[in-house]
């Protein structure tokens, strides 16, 4: 089990369950009690926690699992379908907790075949997924094939979650994603551009950031906010390190999760350091304003 940084949400759990051990966040019972607690506050019109204070890690890279649980408590679930592009590994992904502990069925797309084989083994032997594991697909995703891959694997129409972390053509992939309509979208953004500049790397089907520079990839948050609005999404927050953005479709949960500014998703010290120390190395490469 993973250790967790002490946070307000953990203090809340400990107040409800004094004998609780922090590793128990992987407990389905504890997660459900937490969800019911949020729903009770919502129904009784009592003050809710601040979005950024609800994060914790079960399988996600940082605090995304807790942030997603908070969102789910407020907007509910429909078909429990999720798509994760550039899934990588079950450890560090935004969808693993939902698949293992909340009954989601996922389409997990990854370019590295070894990672796919390891993920298939993980879900085939996990006690909560072995009966019907998520679909793990080895594919190099482009704007030309993204919709075809989803259709071929039976994912069309409304889904509960779309997670995108390709470290490359992320902006162009979301822009050209047509066959599914996610209720929640998580995208990794390039924080080194700050909150105002709406830029992305130009489209290239075989893009590999390491061919140019490790920091030459993706798109700025302002670019994703602009694209999100075109598609009917609003920015509602980010993870604690300010590089994963959460978007909700139209007015879903608007009473409880209002739209936030890109500036509010740039207030971790890592961002300022990146602007000063990482951006100069890639600023003069080709970027497309959108």
Written description of the protein model:
This protein is α/β, with parallel strands linked by helices and 290 residues long. The chain has a single domain, classed as Rossmann fold (3-Layer(aba) Sandwich), CATH 3.40.50. The protein contains ten helices and nine strands. It has helices at 8-16, 28-43, 64-75, 96-101, 113-125, 146-152, 170-176, 221-231, 269-277, 279-282, and strands at residues 81-85, 105-110, 135-138, 157-164, 180-188, 199-200, 233-238, 244-249, 288-289. It has a seven-stranded mixed beta sheet, sandwiched between helices. Helix 2 (28-43) crosses helix 3 (64-75). The longest helix has 16 residues, at 28-43. The protein is globular and about 50 Å long. The N and C termini lie far apart (42 Å). Residues 1-6 have low confidence and may be disordered.
Question: Could you provide a short overview of the structure?
Answer:
The longest helix has 16 residues, at 28-43. With 290 residues, the protein is an alpha/beta fold. β7 (233-238) and β8 form a beta hairpin.
List keywords for this structure.
globular; alpha/beta; Rossmann fold; 290 residues; 7-stranded mixed β-sheet; 10 helices
CATH level-four homologous superfamily name: Vaccinia Virus protein VP39
* Mean of all residue-level pLDDT scores: 93
As for the CATH topology, it is: Rossmann fold
Name the CATH class: Alpha Beta
Dominant shape = globular
In angstroms, what is the radius of gyration? 19 Å
**Which residues form runs of ≥5 with pLDDT under 50?**
1-6
What's the structural domain tally? Answer: 1
Assign the CATH architecture: 3-Layer(aba) Sandwich
User: Into which percentage range does the β-strand content fall?
Assistant: 15-25%
C-alpha end-to-end distance: 42 Å
């Amino acid at each position: 089990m993973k250790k967790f940084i002490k946070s307000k949400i953990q203090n809340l759990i400990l107040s409800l369950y004094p004998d609780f051990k922090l590793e128990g966040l992987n407990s389905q019972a504890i997660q459900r009690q937490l969800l019911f607690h949020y729903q009770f506050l919502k129904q009784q019109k009592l003050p809710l926690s601040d979005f950024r204070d609800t994060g914790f890690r079960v399988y996600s890279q940082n605090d995304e699992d807790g942030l997603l649980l908070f969102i789910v408590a407020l907007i509910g679930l429909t078909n429990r379908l999720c798509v994760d592009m550039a899934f990588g590994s079950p450890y560090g992904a935004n969808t693993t907790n939902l698949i293992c502990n909340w009954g989601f069925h996922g389409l997990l797309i990854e370019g590295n075949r070894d990672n796919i084989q390891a993920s298939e083994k993980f879900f085939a032997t996990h006690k909560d997924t072995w009966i019907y594991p998520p679909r793990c697909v080895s594919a190099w995703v482009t704007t030309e094939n993204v919709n075809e891959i989803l259709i071929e694997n039976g994912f069309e129409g409304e889904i509960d979650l779309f997670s995108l972390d390709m470290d490359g053509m992320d902006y162009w992939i979301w822009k050209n994603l047509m066959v599914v309509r996610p209720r929640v979208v998580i995208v990794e953004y390039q924080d080194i551009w700050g909150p105002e500049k709406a830029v992305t790397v130009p489209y290239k089907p075989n893009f590999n950031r390491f061919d140019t520079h490790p920091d030459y990839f993706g798109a700025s948050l302002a670019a994703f906010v602009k694209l999100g609005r075109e598609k009917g999404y609003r920015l509602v927050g980010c993870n604690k390190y300010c590089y994963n953005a959460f978007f909700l479709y139209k007015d879903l949960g608007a009473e409880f999760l209002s739209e936030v500014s890109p500036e509010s998703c740039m207030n971790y010290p890592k961002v300022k350091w990146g602007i000063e120390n990482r951006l100069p190395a890639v600023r003069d490469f080709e970027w497309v304003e959108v």
